[in-house]
């Protein structure tokens, strides 16, 4: 999925579960409003806490880490969509600060 498609969904207030798999310091620098921070490096700690009935949109800075996370989440049976070019391609405003939980 392109970041612009996610932005359109959010503009129309379509509910979306955004999983940002960047490290905590990266998340605090800038993130999409409403995103939850689940670092890829801590995936074994959080992956089983997600609701398998929900669909998740996964992103990172450029798409590499989110691709890895998407593969692992799909292997566990989660419904996931990867943001192809990550936060770098986000066309909207970003939030600074916050803990992502």
From TrEMBL:
SMART domains: RHOD. InterPro entries: GlpE_sulfurtransferase (IPR050229), Rhodanese-like_dom (IPR001763), Rhodanese-like_dom_sf (IPR036873). Transmembrane segments: none annotated. It comes from the Bacteria. Residues 16-96 form the Rhodanese domain. This is Rhodanese-like domain-containing protein. It comes from Exiguobacterium profundum.
């Amino acid at each position: 999925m392109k970041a612009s498609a996610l932005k359109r969904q959010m503009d129309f207030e379509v509910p979306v579960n955004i999983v940002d798999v960047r490290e905590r310091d990266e998340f605090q620098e800038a993130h999409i409003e409403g995103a939850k921070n689940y670092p890829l490096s801590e995936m074994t700690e959080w992956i089983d806490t997600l609701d398998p009935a929900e669909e998740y949109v996964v992103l990172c800075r450029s798409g590499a880490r989110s691709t890895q996370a998407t593969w692992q989440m799909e292997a566990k049976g989660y419904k996931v969509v990867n943001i192809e070019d990550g936060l770098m391609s986000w066309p909207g405003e970003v939030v600074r600060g916050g803990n992502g939980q």
